[in-house]
Amino acid sequence: MTTRIRFPDGAEVCALGQGTWEIAEDSSHSADEIRALKMGLDLGLTLIDTAEMYGEGAAESLVGEAISGRRDEVFLVSKVYPHNASRAGVAAACERSLKRLKTDRLDLYLLHWAGPHPIEETIRGFEKLKSDGKILRWGVSNFDLDEMEHVVAAPGGSACACNQVLYNLGQRGPEFDLALWMAARTIPLMAYSPLDRGDLARAGALLPIAEKHGATAAQIALAFLLAQPNAIAIPKASSPAHVEANAKALTIALDAEDRAAIDRAFPAPRRKTRLAMY
Ligand code: NAP
After folding, report:
1. DSSP label at 16?
2. What is the pLDDT of residues 98-127, one digit of tens each?
């Protein structure tokens, strides 16, 4: 079990963070969503992942409320829309995100997925933001191996600090090559939709393992990711009860028998498959 993950610049973060897609969609749930994020911070889940896309800024605003007065505890991640990722566009988008998040800096700023602007230009924008102190590091999201090779070969690209990708028990494709390539370069792989959007919480195949550990299927799905040496998992939980349950996954150590049972139900990839995305 790997509970701390190190970025290439030496910064460390808890391997279990918190996602925020589809929060802030219904204001009657906002109080619970804010309570959930705060409880996550109390439990050490200090990485919060958001994006300008989520609710067109509404999720960032809600995160801003949740972290108010606690900014220094948080490892704050946001993402820029690909269509905003020109050199000047990232600067303007970042400024808007900072305002909504009520902070002066992001710990990590990601390109949400590859888009119309050449990555070289996006990197120039990110590096300028870094030298201005608006972001501490930058990375990408939804980049497969060939795209990562392109990133690190670009001017300034060796500073790429993360790739956030779809990775969970139902989507183990990244294990074939991308995860290995990233681990060799200590570029953390941030696993999004770690519960496969909630489906893995209902996975019958995980129940015997869950029962053995006095846990739930969701906790086993997270424990599997936390056992990977270079992965950060960012489940989204809009209720404090789910956050509390997810934090307990940090204490579950899967043994060889568990791993074999998982491999039978969710086989590891035997060949390259193109990186999937939601
Ligand atoms: P997810 O985290 O795999 O699953 C979220 C679902 O699982 C929600 O319905 C949640 O319910 C439920 N859940 C959470 N904890 C649970 C528990 N302990 N027991 C049972 N159910 C539980 O899905 P996701 O939101 O797609 O992914 C996580 C985060 O990754 C996102 O929020 C976002 O920050 C990021 N993401 C990034 C990209 C990208 O393109 N870069 C794409 C997708 C997601 P409640 O909400 O009711 O608690």
Report:
1. B
2. 999 999 999 999 999 999 999 999 999 999
The packing angle between helices 87-101 and 119-131, to 10°, is 50
Q: Output the CA–CA distances (angstroms, integers) from residue 64 to 37, 95, 112, 177, in the order listed.
A: 11, 14, 20, 36
pTM here? Answer: 0.98
Query: To which residue do tokens 């930058």 refer?
Result: 138
Residue 36 CA: which ligand 1 atom is closest? Answer: 48
Q: Specify the DSSP class assigned to residue 53.
A: T
- Are the C-beta atoms of 25 and 55 separated by less than 8 Å? yes
Q: What is the best residue among 16, 18, 21 to mutate for testing ligand 1's pocket, by most ligand atoms within 8 Å of CB?
A: 21
In the 8-state DSSP scheme, what is residue 229? T
* Cα 41 to the center of its chain, rounded Å: 15
Query: What digits encode the pLDDT tens for the residues 229-261?
Result: 999 999 999 999 999 999 999 999 999 999 999
Atom of ligand 1 nearest to the CA of 168: 3
* Residues within a 6 A CB radius of ligand 1: 19-21, 49, 112, 141-142, 164, 192-198, 201, 216, 218, 234-239, 242, 245-246, 277-278
Q: What is the residue-averaged pLDDT of the chain?
A: 97
